[in-house]
Write a structure and sequence with these properties.
about 325 residues, alpha+beta, Aminopeptidase, 2 domains, 9-stranded mixed beta sheet, 4-stranded antiparallel beta sheet, 9 helices, globular, disordered N terminus, binds coenzyme A
C-alpha cells in the first residue's frame, strides 16, 4: 500500500486504535510531569474529525515498538493555505537529536506528499533535545503558548471567595451560570458550537483557524474526560454566551481546562472569570489538588484572568513553522 516506510533502521507502520495506549505511554515516559491518559488517546484516535486528515504510525526498530508518529493536516478545502503538522515521540532510551530528526523527516515526506505547503511542529520550551532536532531541520519559531498550574490547596480560600463575588456579579448582570447536565434546551450543543466558532476566531494564531462541525462538539461532550455536570455554561435568556470546561483524565493525568469562551457581545463583564471560578470551585469540592491551563502567549485577557486567579507559569509550548 506504500504506507509502510523504512527510514534508516526505523519502520513506520500504520497505527491502529489499539496502539493508542502505547502512544500515551510513550508520551508519559518522555514527560512524566504531564502523564497522558490511554483512554483519552483511544477515544480520540477512534473518533476522527470530518475536517482533518490524520495519519498515525507506530515506529519500530528490529520489530520492537519504540515510538509513535503522525502527519496531519486540515482538509485542504477548509484550509487552502495548506499547513501540515508533523508529530510523534520516541521512548526516552531511543530519543536523540538524530532519531527525532529521522522521525520528523519521514512525517514531513508524508505530509508533503499529501500536498502541504507549510510544515509545523511543536516542542515544549524545556525540551532542548527536541528543539535542537526541530531547528536542525530548518524550522523557525512561530509562536509560544503559556502553560499554567493552579494549586487548589494553597489558593482554596481566595478562589472560593472570588467564585462568590463572581456569582453575585452574574446575578446582577442577569447571567445564569449552570452546567450542561442542568440545561434542558435541545439546541444547547448547537449553541455551544456556534459560540465556540465565534470565539475560536478570536484566539491569536498564525495558521488560519480550521472551522469545526457541530458533530465535533457532540464527540467532545461524550469524551471520557468530559462530564456534563462539570461542563459550565453561561446563559443570557435563550442564548449561550459562555462556557468553561475542565477535562478530568479517567486513568491518569492532571485535570486541565479544555476550552473557555465567551460571546463577543458579553466580553469584559466577568463571564469568563465567573465560569472559570465555577470549574475550579467544583474541582476543589471534588478533592483535586491542582489544575492546569494553556493559552497563546498573545491572548491578553485570558493571561490576565489566569494570573489574577493565582495560576503560576510552568513550561509552555513552542510552535515552529517551515515552508516546504
Ligand atoms: C478570553 C475570553 C474568554 C475572555 O472572556 P471575557 O468574558 O471578556 O472575560 P472576563 O470579562 O471575565 O475577564 C476579562 C478580563 O481580562 C481583562 N482584559 C481584557 N482585555 C485585556 C487586555 N487586552 N489585556 C489585559 N487584560 C485584558 C479585563 O479587564 C478583565 O479583567 P478583570 O476581571 O480584572 O476586570 C474571551 O475574550 C474569548 O472568548 N476569547 C476567544 C477565545 C479564547 O481566547 N479563549 C481562551 C483561551 S483558549
Amino acid at each position: 500500500m506504500g504506507d509502510t516506510v523504512t527510514r534508516t533502521d526505523f519502520a513506520f507502520s500504520p497505527a491502529i486504535t489499539d496502539d493508542a495506549a502505547f502512544a500515551a505511554d510513550v508520551d508519559t515516559a518522555v514527560r512524566p510531569s504531564s502523564p497522558r491518559d490511554p483512554m483519552v488517546y483511544q477515544y480520540w484516535w477512534s473518533h476522527p474529525d470530518e475536517n482533518w486528515a490524520i495519519n498515525r504510525f507506530i515506529v519500530s526498530r528490529g520489530g520492537r515498538r519504540v515510538g509513535h508518529a503522525s502527519s496531519e493536516h486540515a482538509r485542504w478545502e477548509v484550509q487552502p493555505e495548506r499547513y501540515g503538522t508533523v508529530g510523534g515521540e520516541l521512548l526516552p532510551m531511543e530519543r536523540t537529536q538524530t532519531t527525532l530528526g529521522a522521525l520528523f523527516e519521514a512525517m514531513e515526506k508524508r505530509v508533503v506528499a499529501d500536498g502541504a505547503r507549510v510544515l509545523g511542529v511543536y516542542a515544549y520550551e524545556n525540551d532542548p533535545l527536541r528543539i535542537a532536532a526541530i531547528e536542525a531541520r530548518g524550522y523557525k519559531e512561530d509562536r509560544r503558548s503559556r502553560r499554567w498550574e493552579l494549586d487548589l490547596f494553597a489558593n482554596r480560600e481566595k478562589l472560593l471567595a472570588m467564585a462568590e463575588i463572581s456569582r453575585e456579579r452574574m446575578r446582577r448582570e442577569g447571567v445564569r451560570i449552570l452546567t450542561l447536565a442542568q440545561d434542558d434546551d435541545p439546541s444547547v450543543i448547537e449553541k455551544v458550537w456556534r459560540l465556540s466558532e465565534e470565539a475560536g476566531d478570536d484566539v491569536p494564531t498564525t495558521e488560519p483557524r480550521v472551522p469545526e462541525e457541530m458533530a465535533a462538539y457532540a464527540r467532545w461532550v461524550n469524551a471520557p474526560e468530559i462530564h456534563r455536570d462539570r461542563f459550565w455554561l453561561a446563559r443570557l435568556g435563550e442564548a449561550v454566551v459562555g462556557l468553561s470546561v475542565l477535562g478530568y483524565p479517567p486513568v491518569r493525568g492532571i485535570v486541565g481546562t479544555e476550552w473557555t469562551a465567551t460571546a463577543r457581545s458579553v466580553r469584559g463583564r466577568g463571564v469568563a472569570r465567573a465560569l472559570k471560578c465555577e470549574t475550579v470551585a467544583q474541582a476543589i469540592a471534588l478533592g483535586v489538588d491542582r489544575v492546569r491551563t494553556g493559552n497563546d502567549a498573545a491572548n491578553d485577557p485570558i493571561l490576565h484572568i489566569n494570573e489574577t486567579m493565582g495560576y503560576k507559569l510552568i513550561p509552555g509550548g513552542i510552535h515552529y513553522l517551515r515552508p516546504v
